[in-house]
Amino acid sequence: MASSAPAEKPPPPRDADREALLAERARALFREIRCVECGTGQTIEFSDAPTAKELRKLVRGMLQAGRSAEDVRDYVAQQYGERVLFRGVDARAAEVGVTVLIGGAAVALGMASLMSRRAGGMSRRGRYRKMINELTRYGLGDKWQWTPRERRGLEQLLR
């Protein structure tokens, strides 16, 4: 039998719940704000620098006063500049990343070219044949000839 009593409203959050929610919102913002003293891209969440401590105190105070996370971000950016916020990749970081990527590709191509020249421009099979011929000459002399079947077996061993 269904009860005809109206559904009860959930009780308002307790002070401990409000504090936990506020602390979580503050920690989320701490992870988005760069420490201006550290210079290593560290967030204020774990920095021990005096400025980071002040920023954490400021963020908590603004959240306790009822300000939104966006208000806090805007205020911090206005006071310390946009670079203090971790907001994706800025243009300079993207430029550096592309430069590193292009430089890495150039180095890789240069190394591949150098290794190819060292190998005499041969394929793997050509290198195996050259190695078999050199080993044969060294161990058995110039007059020894391998049969095609023996050569295939040696190539299999060298792989």
Automatic annotation (TrEMBL):
Pfam families: CcmH
Organism domain of life: Eukaryota
Membrane-spanning intervals of the chain: 96-115
Keyword field contains Lyase: no
CcmH/CycL/Ccl2/NrfF N-terminal domain residues: 20-88
Gene Ontology terms for molecular function: metal ion binding
Keywords annotated in UniProt: Heme, Iron, Membrane, Metal-binding, Transmembrane, Transmembrane helix
InterPro entries given in the database record: CcmH/CycL/Ccl2/NrfF_N, CcmH/CycL/NrfF/Ccl2_sf
Family named by the database record: Belongs to the CcmH/CycL/Ccl2/NrfF family.
Protein name (database record): CcmH/CycL/Ccl2/NrfF N-terminal domain-containing protein
Source species: Cyanidium caldarium
